[in-house]
Amino acid sequence: MSRAATLLFAIVAYAIFFATFLYLIVFVGDLSFASRTVDVGPSAPLTVAIVTNLALIGLFGMQHSVMARPAFKQWWTRFVPQSAERSIYVLAASGMLILLFFGWRPIPQVVWSVTNPLAADIIWLLFWAGWLIVLLSTFLINHFELFGLQQAWLNMRGRKAANPQLRQPFFYRWVAHPLYSGFFLAFWAAPEMTAGHLLLAVGMSTFMLIAIRYEEDDLTNLFGEDYRRYRSGVGMLTPRFRRRSA
Length: 246
Fold this sequence. Notes:
Helix 4 (82-103) packs antiparallel against helix 7 (149-157). By secondary structure, the protein is mainly alpha-helical. It has a two-stranded antiparallel sheet. The protein has one domain. It has 10 helices and 2 strands. 66% of the residues lie in helices and 3% in strands.
């Protein structure tokens, strides 16, 4: 793959990712203008819906975790350009989400419903705050590297990326995984929670808790004692404010 083709591929993969990310907000929020959401779509018997939905979550989780591991990357880059590896990962993750959107079978039974207008507005505020935290967190840790554009751009310029550094910008001063914190808020903040939405929230939350453990092992292997010290001083998903020395 030529340098120009790699950059073009990265741009296309990023565009598909961003469109998929926006639709994920629509899907989880069950926004009324969409024809397919967590609560709108083809019906299926309860058992079929549960099995299908769990399989879709499992496929996403497997792809997301396996392709992110250093050992897989080392093997995978024997066959694909290193400058395109992240873009391929992003494209594959987007594909798994698109499959989830179209394969999902709603389970409409209501688990809880918040009827108080003020309480419902607060929950919606938390929902949108979660997505904002997700997006801001990606920029704090280098949005364009996370989604493959920087690698392709540096390759186009004939430059190498700088060595990774352990930084703690903004959210990361108090929370080790604010991106996942945002996703937790987004998946669970629902004024009306159906059984299908609850299944999605529980499934994705389980995946994220597992993914965090693998990521922390990878970061410990990469940064060693520096990461251990950092991790001991911050919360995993909720803030742990450090006490000032006397």
